[in-house]
C-alpha cells in the first residue's frame, strides 16, 4: 500500500529565501533568494535556482553528457530550510490559507487563497 505524499505550501515559481544552513561567509547559501524550479513532495524537497549548487563529474560518451567534463548544477534542498519571500517587504514569511465563499451562477463555491502571514497580501 503506497503512502500519500504530504501537502507542501511552497509551489513552483515561488520566490524563496534560505533560512537555515551555513552562512554566506562560510561558503553556504543562508540568506540567499531564488525562484523554485521544481517541487518534490514525496521527499519534501525543492529545487531552487542558484541555491545548493554542486559540481558533478560527467564521463564522455554518456547519454546527454556530450563531451564530458565538470557540470555545475543545483541539488534539491529540504523544504524546512526555505521560506517564501513576502512580496511587500522582501523578507521571509509563513503562508496561511484564506477561504472565501464566492457566489457564482446561484452556486456558492469555496475558494482557497495563499496569503502571506507577515503582510496579509495574496501570494
UniProtKB/TrEMBL annotation:
Entry keywords, A to Z: Ribonucleoprotein, Ribosomal protein, RNA-binding, rRNA-binding
Q: What is the top-level taxon of the source organism?
A: Bacteria
Matching SUPFAM superfamilies = Translation proteins SH3-like domain
Q: Per the record, a Pfam family? A: ribosomal_L24
NCBIfam families in alphabetical order: rplX_bact
Q: Main role?
A: One of two assembly initiator proteins, it binds directly to the 5'-end of the 23S rRNA, where it nucleates assembly of the 50S subunit.
Descriptive protein name: Large ribosomal subunit protein uL24
Q: Which organism is it from?
A: Leekyejoonella antrihumi
Amino acid at each position: 500500500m503506497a503512502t500519500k505524499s504530504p501537502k507542501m505550501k511552497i509551489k513552483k515559481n515561488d520566490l524563496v529565501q534560505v533560512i537555515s544552513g551555513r552562512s554566506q561567509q562560510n561558503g553556504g547559501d543562508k540568506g540567499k533568494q531564488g525562484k523554485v524550479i521544481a517541487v518534490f513532495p514525496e521527499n519534501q524537497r525543492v529545487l531552487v535556482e542558484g541555491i545548493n549548487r554542486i559540481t558533478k563529474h560527467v564521463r564522455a560518451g554518456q547519454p546527454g553528457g556530450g563531451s564530458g567534463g565538470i557540470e555545475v548544477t543545483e541539488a534539491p534542498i529540504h523544504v524546512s530550510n526555505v521560506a517564501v519571500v513576502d512580496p511587500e517587504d522582501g523578507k521571509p514569511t509563513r503562508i496561511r490559507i484564506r477561504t472565501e465563499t464566492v457566489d457564482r451562477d446561484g452556486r456558492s463555491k469555496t475558494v482557497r487563497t495563499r496569503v502571506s502571514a507577515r503582510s496579509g497580501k495574496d501570494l
